Amino acid sequence: VGYETVPIRKNGKTYRGDILIRLNEKSYVMVEMNQNKSVSIIDRNMVNSTRVLSQLLEKGTKDSELKKHRIRVLNLNLMPNESGNPIEHYAVCNTKTGEIASLMYTFCNVDIEKCREVVYNYGIENVPEEVRWCAILGERNIKRISDILGDELLSMEEKENYLKTIREVNNDESILQEWMIEEKERLKKEDEMNTAYNDGINEGIEKGIEKGLDEKTTEVINKMLEEGMDYKVISKVTGKSIDEIRKIDKEKCN
Predict the structure, then answer these.
(1) Residues in Cβ contact with 222 at an 8 Å cutoff, skipping those fewer than 6 apart
(2) How many CB atoms are located within 10 Å of the residue 80 CB?
(3) Which helix (H) or strand (E) element contains residue 32?
(4) For residue range 5-16, what is the model confidence (pLDDT) as tens digits?
(5) Which pLDDT belongs to residue 119?
(6) Which of 229, 200, 206, 205 lies closest to 77, judged by CA?
(7) Mind giving me the DSSP string for 120-174?
(8) pLDDT tens digit string along 39-79?
(9) 81, HSE (Cβ side, Cα atoms, 13 Å)
(10) Taking the complete model, does pTM exceed 0.90, yes or no?
(11) What is the predicted pLDDT for the residue at 145?
């Protein structure tokens, strides 16, 4: 189930939950897939996860029953974890004693790229199964996926079905088309340039550049400057020289 919160600022920035899986009436799994190296990923996960149980409160669920519910958040990101570990587990705990205070919300924060590095450097026989699964999530080569799976993560039949599904999805143009339509609609609602940068989607910026409209490009640069972006980053994204960007910034200040 996909869902979005109400935008928290006028430029259309939203917090969106990617996948919500209901295991049963009292247990949920949320999957968050992040493209940015944001320092607020865990905070965003907490915002999204609390929204699930808050709906139960609105329905009049008693506290005694609420405690029996569980939400597990699987955070798939491309950023290094603070501890330097490929996988980290979080729970609400007492900072003085270290004891767990609540297991209502628990988080599994995964560094996919680091998992791939660990598997590559140490081999599948020397790493935990969880690390191998996470490495698969970031792997694009189907033969490599098969090698990481090995012969013990799935039965032979399950493995064949899994790889068959991947091949079918990779060759399904309708999936890409649906994604493109969804992105187009989302970019209409949000601030196009800010979203393109923050989510790693440069489509909006590329459209402005391809049109060759200096006025549009200047508008994009001004927005990026307002966000405090570095000249080098702006130059890389827009194709303008640092001197040109510096001039636009100076005119903006005047």
Answers:
(1) 248, 252
(2) 13
(3) strand 27-33
(4) 444 444 545 556
(5) 93
(6) 200
(7) HHH-GGGS-HHHHHHHHHT---HHHHHHHHTTTSS-HHHHHHHHHHHHHHHT-HH
(8) 677 777 787 788 777 777 777 878 788 778 888 988 887 66
(9) 20
(10) no
(11) 93
First to last CA, the chain: 48
Residues contacting 31, CB < 8 A, separation 6+ = 18, 19, 20, 21, 73, 74, 76
pLDDT given for residue 148 in this prediction: 94
Beta strands at 87-93 and 70-77: parallel, antiparallel or unpaired? unpaired
DSSP character string of 76-96:
EESS--TT--SEEEEEEE-TT
In tens, the pLDDT along 79-131 reads: 666 677 888 888 888 888 888 888 888 888 888 888 999 999 999 999 999 99
Note every long-range contact of 118-123, with CB atoms under 8 Å and residues 24 or more positions apart, other chains counting: 118/86, 119/148
- Is residue 146's pLDDT more than 90? yes
Query: Residue 209's closest CA among 236, 176, 230?
Result: 236
Tokens of residue 15, six digits: 């917090």
Question: What pLDDT is attached to residue 245?
Answer: 85
Contact of 159 with 149, CB cutoff 8 Å = yes
Residue 77, class by beta-carbon neighbours within 10 Å (0-12 exposed, 13-18 middle, 19+ buried)?
buried
Q: How confident is the model at residue 38 (pLDDT cuts 50, 70, 90)?
A: low
Measured CA angle at 53 (ends 51, 15), to 5 deg: 15
Q: How far apart are CA 36 and CA 42, in angstroms?
A: 13
Angle of helix 231-238 relative to helix 214-226, nearest 10 degrees? 150
Core vs surface per residue 118-133: b (16+ CB within 10 A) or e: bbeeeebeebeeebbe
